[in-house]
Design a protein that fits this description.
0% of the residues lie in helices and 28% in strands. By secondary structure, it is mainly β. Strand 3 and strand 4 form a beta hairpin. It is globular and about 45 Å long. The chain starts with 10 loop residues before the first strand and ends in a 14-residue tail after the last strand.
């Protein structure tokens, strides 16, 4: 059976190690979805991460709250909404996540475990589910580069997941705002 192409960004795997509410700038212009990788900018506000080597990630967005820290009526943050909002972020650099590969230019393989790679920004996310469309950039060269954003830990073990197109993988952040990246191969 073929894997389904249903990206969801970074989904926490196993126990949630740490989560914290972070402020978003007033009327932040970019729409954010659950599972989007986020960073703290120089003003101390949460913003969407940038894909690619050298771009650190704080963690994954888990949910969004209004000015009074009440849950939003949508399952995602609509960009340019008036007022200050809050984003709940899984922010422990040791946190494991499940992420789908994009299968553009090839697929990852089991021999790639322990290597570093980067994420690919999706086309926004789903206004229905509120899920992100970020994925592992399977066409990026796998390497032992400390600046790469993620490290492949394992295949996501599930009866409906197999190595090949749109495989789901267990990763952890390699270039995290809360910890330095690792140079080398291994898990």
């Amino acid at each position: 059976m073929a894997n389904s192409n249903t990206p969801f960004g970074l989904r926490v795997k196993g126990p949630l190690l740490s989560a914290k509410l972070y402020k978003m700038g007033a009327a932040y212009a970019t729409t954010l979805y659950r599972g989007d990788p986020v960073v703290l900018n120089n003003a101390g506000d949460i913003v969407i991460a940038t894909a690619g080597t050298g771009n650190a990630i704080l963690g994954a967005a888990l949910g969004f709250y209004d000015t009074d820290q009440g849950i939003l009526t949508t399952s995602y943050y609509v960009g340019a909404t008036a007022g200050i909002h809050w984003c709940l972020v899984a922010d422990d650099p040791r946190q494991l996540y499940v992420v789908q590969e994009d299968s553009v230019g090839g697929n990852l393989a089991l021999v790639d475990l322990g290597q570093n790679s980067v994420l690919a920004a999706g086309a926004g996310g789903s206004a229905i589910s509120g899920r992100s469309s970020w994925m592992i950039d399977s066409s990026a060269a796998l390497a032992a580069t400390a600046g790469d954003q993620i490290r492949l830990i394992d295949i996501y073990r599930s009866p409906d997941n197999a190595v090949g197109a749109y495989c789901k993988w267990v990763i952890r952040l390699n270039n995290a705002q809360g910890a330095a990246g690792i140079v080398g191969v291994g898990i």
